[in-house]
Design goal:
159 residues, alpha+beta, four-stranded antiparallel beta sheet, 4 strands, elongated
Length: 159
């Protein structure tokens, strides 16, 4: 009876905490004395990670961003920002087979607005216009990663 009640309630998630695990910001333009009137070309790489914590029902999901801004009309790097931002979650009523996508889609979606704010503040405080990241489609990112892993495994099956 308790299992039936839990399934009727549906998935439940609480954010227990959020933190910056690691961050690095290099203002290369200022170090080299490059002109300030360059047009930037910003590249953002996103990596996700999730793991179970020792406490029952608790998980940690992290978003790792590598942001590189280069001059559009050359190879000069303006700045590099690397940040590993994590959230600690308490999750109930998620079936085991749905837990992996839940941790890598729903959890990052919950903490992303806070990460976006940090990136905006750091780039602004670093002497650049604030970088306002576009929304990340975590579902598409998850699907692409699953497809990439399947493609990697496919040749091994033929051998």
């Amino acid at each position: 009876m308790a299992d039936a009640e839990a399934q009727q309630q549906g998935p439940q998630m609480r954010v227990l905490g959020q933190f910056i695990r690691d961050m690095s910001f290099e203002n290369i333009m200022a170090q080299k004395g490059a002109p300030a009137d360059v047009t930037p070309d910003v590249q953002v790489q996103v990596n996700l990670d999730a793991k179970k914590r020792s406490t029952e029902g608790q998980y940690e999901t992290s978003i790792k961003l590598n942001v590189t801004s280069k001059a559009k009309d050359g190879d000069a790097t303006l700045f590099v920002l690397e940040i590993d931002y994590a959230g600690i979650f308490h999750i109930d009523n998620v079936p085991e087979e749905q837990l992996h996508p839940f941790l890598l889609i729903e959890c990052p979606r919950m903490i992303f607005p806070f990460l976006r704010r940090i990136v905006s503040d750091v780039t602004r405080d670093g002497g650049f216009p604030p970088l306002n990241l576009e929304n990340i489609d975590f579902l598409a990112l998850y699907r692409n990663e699953i497809a990439r892993r399947q493609a990697e495994d496919a040749p091994k099956m033929d051998a």
